Amino acid sequence: MAPLYNRAMATDHAQFFDPATEQGVLRLSIAGSLLLAAAAVVFGLLANSSLIIFDGIYGLIDVVMTWLSLLVARLIALSTSTDALQSRLNQRFTMGFWHLEPIVLGVSGTLMIGAALYALVNAVDALMSGGRHIALGPAIAFAGLSIVGEGALAWFVLRANRRIGSEFIALAGILLVTPPELQAHVDAVARAIVARHGFVEHRSYVAQVGRGEQIELFFVVPEDDPPRPLVEWDRLRDEIGEALGEASPDRWLTIMFTTDREWTI
Fold first, then answer.
1. Is residue 132 located within the same domain as residue 223?
2. Tens digits of per-residue pLDDT, 200-241?
3. Which one-letter DSSP state was computed for residue 133?
4. What is the DSSP letter of 208?
5. C-alpha span between 152 and 139 (Å, rounded)
6. pLDDT of residue 247
7. Over the stretch 236-257, which tens digit does the pLDDT of each residue have?
8. Which of 127, 152, 168 is the last residue of a domain?
9. What are the residues facing 212 on neighbouring strands?
10. 204 pairs with which residues across the strands?
11. 45 within 8 A of 138, measured Cβ to Cβ
């Protein structure tokens, strides 16, 4: 039983730190950052350097924000699954969790910038007061360790993300910026639908929120257009959805038909 148990434990640990998944990469990043932060505190105490100690605290902030990123990735994965927990999550968060990705990164960037500014002010104050005596041996050793460790961690994360394609990217998601390529594709599909079905015009609203795509399409139908059964409108929605691309849990698509332009504004 012991060998089977050990193999099962090893499999669980391999899956927990799986570099082929977004959550596995984030867990590895947390572990690496935590080790580097702990090393910074130890070397800072040995070198009598508040700056190195601060670097460790800076790293701990990064660990906390990476943990929050992991939590958001987990929430998004749960919200698109098909179990009882997913049902309860959707009842409380009907618009999903995509918006949390850029928020977490925005908060993380703000904290990092604030910490860096504090370090700058502290360094200038130390210089103005004549500086501090530093044990150069531990300081140089930590500098070399930090460069190698952080460089290796950055290289690993960047390489892993080429395969994963994680959408944990910055500011555009917070501001609901419209990706030009997606907007052009949506408009091209909508114009074809307008021409094919004799509609008056269309309006489109597109945004990238984290990994999620939000698309709202409004079609203005002529007032004298003959009545159609609801099932025909549903078939038309299916046609538009297929033309936009393969359906995905990360796409929020709304399609509306109206004769009043006011509803499209």
1. no
2. 999 998 887 666 788 899 999 999 988 889 999 999 999 999
3. -
4. E
5. 20
6. 75
7. 999 999 999 877 777 888 899 9
8. 168
9. 209
10. 217
11. no
